[in-house]
Amino acid sequence: MIQLPTWVQQMQTEAQSVMPSLKLPKADRTIIKNWAFEAIEVQTPSTYNNEIPSAVAHLVSTEDQNVVILCDGKIVYQNLGIAFDGVIIANLEEALTKHEAIFKPYFMNVASVDTNRLTALHMAHLNSGLFIHVPKNKVVKEALNVIYLQENGSLFNHTLIVAEPNSEFKYIENYCNTVSGNINVISETVVKENAQVDYAAMDRLTSETLVYNLRKARVEANGRLLVSLGALNDGNTVSENLVSLVGQGAHAEVKTVAIAEGLQKQNITVNIEHLAPFTEGHIVNHGISKDDAQLTFNGIGKVHKGMNGSNAQQESRAMILSETARADANPILLIDEYDVKAGHAAGVGKIDEEQLYYLMSRGLTRRAAEVLIIYGFLMPFIDEIRNESIKAEFEKVIARKINA
Questions:
Q1: DSSP 72-122
Q2: Strands 128-134 and 88-91, how do they pair?
Q3: Measuring CA to CA, which residue among 87, 179, 83, 188 is closest to residue 129?
Q4: What is the DSSP letter of 354?
Q5: 348 burial via Cβ count (<10 Å: 0-12, 13-18, 19+)
Q6: pTM above 0.85, yes or no
Q7: What are phi and psi of 343, to 5 degrees?
Q8: Through-space distance between the first and last CA atoms of the chain, rounded to whole angstroms
Q9: Is the Cβ–Cβ distance between 154 and 209 less than 8 Å?
Q10: pLDDT digits (tens, 9 = 90+) for 239-281
Q11: What is the mean pLDDT of the chain?
Q12: Which of 49, 229, 387, 392 could cysteine-pair with 256, CB 3.0–4.6 Å?
């Protein structure tokens, strides 16, 4: 078990005490009050020793550099190249001991403990984490590929990324599991002045897994945050992706692709808040809902009064593949300033019959034509993925879900 310092234990005690009075996160058009978020199973630390677990061997090999694998709260494999010299990459225990002076000021600072009942639950049962600190002026051109694997118990993982001024960093995360059990994960990202972080994530957790995922970022003056999210879980999921643009000239782009199938419910919120002038935020959501599934996109752009010159744009589109599937795209613009640009587009519908007819007239079966149209719908997102191995895996997961 991780030995937590006194100040963290105090935060856990406070989290336990405020939890009953806090509300669940707001998940518009999805009823989550009866979801068993608080059904927690005790986690047993992994026994792997600098080896790649077989469950994720299809994602990485020993020939791949810049890989970190955490299994049930422990770093079980790490292979870093010289590009990461000077970058701190530490598990939760190391962050709280060797790097406490750097870690403590940022931990649960971007995402506060009392945000909602599930963030308090996260703090109260914290059992895994990774701290990444990119020093000032450090430019890392290669991507860090991090895999979080759950093989037993409930996972309460916390990722903290701090990119100091003028730094550049590329981060790819994968959440996978082989068993049922709740997953409650929080990611905090701090992008300081003139820094840039490329953040890519792919979640593919089993149908027996209930997921709460909060990714929250703060971007300072002239910082850039580029986020690509693949919401490919098989189980019920609440995903909140929140960005605060706190410095003049800050820029954020969040692109999400999601596929809901079976009886699954996925509720995905992307919220970019403009808290400084001349900031720019772009939201793009594309999704598929099939079988009896429910997919909900909540896109929110908030421009506060006085934040002139800001630009808030969003687009959410969903495709329904069955009569019993449901999809919702909820665009929200909250604009308290006149001198801004803002716009949104939203659409939910079935596959275009005219497109199907055209493709079938060229010799394709109806099913082949449907698959081709779906790929065309999702391809703009897939093309944005810069890591070829992750891109290939992404395409494979999408193919499995579409053809299931």
A1: TTEEEEEE--GGGTT-EEEEHHHHHHTTHHHHTTTTTTSS-GGGSHHHHHH
A2: antiparallel
A3: 188
A4: H
A5: middle
A6: yes
A7: -165, 155
A8: 40
A9: no
A10: 999 999 999 999 999 999 999 999 999 999 999 999 999 999 9
A11: 94
A12: 229
